[in-house]
Design goal:
four-stranded antiparallel sheet, 1 helix, mainly beta, single chain
Length: 144
């Protein structure tokens, strides 16, 4: 589990063996927002948005697609999950209490972002950086 309070970086596989590659990957992850906040004994095992054609994005990344997207989340926790929320554009669109979930958004035109928030009964908390979604059904808005 992360330290009591931590920014956890989502790094690509294979950078552990090379210190220079790991430093570069850490800086890139920070710069691109590929991270999440955690307090206590809670960790993110998986957090992806997947398009109907199989393309994926994780926190800090952008998924360009048309049609529905599926959000997949798996948490590692020491205490029972009190709640897990999928937040779309600042609004809670899914609220459950399982350590893993799959939720499908029908998609549609426009640009959106998704975050995952979770809390355990022990008070542990997690919040991801956004996964951005840009529908290929419309032109991107300038400055978004």
């Amino acid at each position: 589990f992360p330290a009591d309070r931590a920014v956890v970086l989502l790094l690509p596989a294979g950078v552990d063996a090379d210190p220079a590659a790991r430093r570069a990957a850490c800086l890139t992850a920070l710069r691109e927002g590929r991270s999440y906040l955690a307090q206590g004994a809670i960790a993110l095992e998986e957090c992806t948005a997947t398009s109907a054609d199989g393309r994926q994005a994780s926190p800090g990344e952008c998924l360009e697609a048309a049609g529905p997207i599926t959000i997949t989340v798996a948490l590692r926790v020491a205490a029972r999950v009190q709640w897990v929320q999928v937040i779309k554009d600042g609004q809670i669109v899914y609220d459950g209490a399982d350590a893993s979930l799959q939720w499908t958004d029908p998609g549609g035109a426009g640009m959106h972002y998704y975050r995952i928030a979770a809390k355990t009964e022990g008070g542990d908390f997690l919040l991801t950086n956004p996964i951005f979604f840009c529908s290929t059904l419309t032109e991107p808005k300038e400055g978004y």
